[in-house]
C-alpha cells in the first residue's frame, strides 16, 4: 500500500521511516504479495521525521477495499471454428453467422467479414454478398451474419474470414464453402434395370415352357380335374 505524502514538513525534517497498523492497532507491513477479501479494512500509516533530536509523526488513513474478481468471460469468436467447411447449394441463398464475445466496456470492437483479402460490405442489401451486425444485450454476444443472396461457383474457391480486431483478444476464423452432396441415383437405376430384365426373362420363359410348367405344378400339387355325367353304374367282378 502507499502511504500519502501530502503536507510534508520542511527539508530540515529528515524522514525516519513509515510504520503501518490496522484499525485495531495491530502492526502491519503494508505490503501484500497477493490480497484476499479478508484483507479489506482500514489501515493507518505513520510517517516519522527527525528534527533537532525529536521525532515528529504524521498519520494517514488508507482504506483497502478488496473485491471479488468477476468470472473471466470467454472472449473471442465462438462460432464458426477456424477451418470449418459449410455446405451450400449453388444458385441458392445462404447465411453464415459469426458469433463473438468481447468486453464492450473496455473494447468497442465488433466482428466483420473478409472475402479473400477484401472487406465485405456491411448492410449493403444491393450487393450479392454482404454482412449484417446484431448485438444481444442479455448475453453481450455480437453476431456478424455473412449473407449470400445467390451462391456462385466462384464462392466455392474463395476463403471467407470473420475477424475480431480486439485489443484484449484478437481472433479470426476462416471458412470455405462446398456443394451439398447430391444423392447418388446409380443404385436406383441399376435396380430398375435388373427388375425390368427379370420381368422380361420371366415372360419369355413362361411363354416357351407354358405346358411343361403347367404339368409340373399339376403333378407337384396333385391337382387333377375330373368330370361326371351324373349317372350311376353297377360294377360286377
UniProtKB/TrEMBL annotation:
Q: Provide an example Pfam family for this protein.
A: ig
Ig-like domain residues: 1-61, 80-178
Keywords in alphabetical order? Disulfide bond, Glycoprotein, Immunoglobulin domain, Membrane, Receptor, Repeat, Signal, Transmembrane, Transmembrane helix
State which residue ranges cross the membrane: 187-206
**Carries keyword Disulfide bond?**
yes
GO terms assigned for molecular function: interleukin-1 receptor activity
Superkingdom of source: Eukaryota
Q: Which InterPro entries match?
A: Ig-like_dom, Ig-like_dom_sf, Ig-like_fold, IL-1_rcpt_fam, IL-1_rcpt_I/II-typ, Immunoglobulin_dom
Q: Which family does it belong to?
A: Belongs to the interleukin-1 receptor family.
What's this protein's name? Answer: Interleukin 18 receptor 1
Originating gene: IL18R1
Amino acid at each position: 500500500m502507499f502511504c500519502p505524502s501530502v503536507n510534508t514538513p520542511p527539508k530540515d525534517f529528515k524522514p525516519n521511516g513509515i510504520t503501518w497498523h490496522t484499525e485495531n492497532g495491530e502492526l502491519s507491513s503494508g505490503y501484500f504479495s497477493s490480497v484476499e477479501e479478508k484483507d479489506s479494512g482500514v489501515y493507518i500509516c505513520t510517517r516519522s521525521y527527525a528534527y533537532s533530536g525529536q521525532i515528529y509523526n504524521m498519520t494517514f488513513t488508507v482504506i483497502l477495499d478488496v473485491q471479488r474478481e468477476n468470472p473471466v468471460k470467454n472472449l473471442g469468436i465462438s462460432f464458426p471454428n477456424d477451418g470449418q467447411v459449410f455446405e451450400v447449394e449453388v444458385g441458392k441463398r445462404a447465411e453464415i453467422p459469426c458469433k463473438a464475445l468481447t468486453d464492450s466496456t473496455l473494447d468497442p470492437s465488433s466482428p466483420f467479414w473478409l472475402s479473400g483479402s477484401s472487406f465485405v460490405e456491411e448492410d449493403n442489401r444491393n450487393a450479392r454478398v454482404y454482412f449484417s451486425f446484431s448485438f444481444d444485450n442479455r448475453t453481450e454476444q455480437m453476431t456478424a451474419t455473412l449473407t449470400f443472396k445467390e451462391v456462385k461457383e466462384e464462392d466455392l474457391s474463395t476463403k471467407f474470414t470473420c475477424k475480431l480486431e480486439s485489443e484484449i483478444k484478437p481472433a479470426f476464423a476462416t471458412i470455405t464453402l462446398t456443394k451439398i452432396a447430391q444423392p447418388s441415383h446409380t443404385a436406383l437405376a441399376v435396380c430398375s434395370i435388373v427388375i425390368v430384365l427379370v420381368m422380361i426373362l420371366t415372360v419369355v420363359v413362361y411363354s416357351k415352357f407354358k405346358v411343361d410348367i403347367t404339368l409340373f405344378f399339376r403333378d407337384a400339387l396333385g391337382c387333377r380335374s375330373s368330370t361326371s355325367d351324373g349317372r350311376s353304374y353297377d360294377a360286377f367282378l
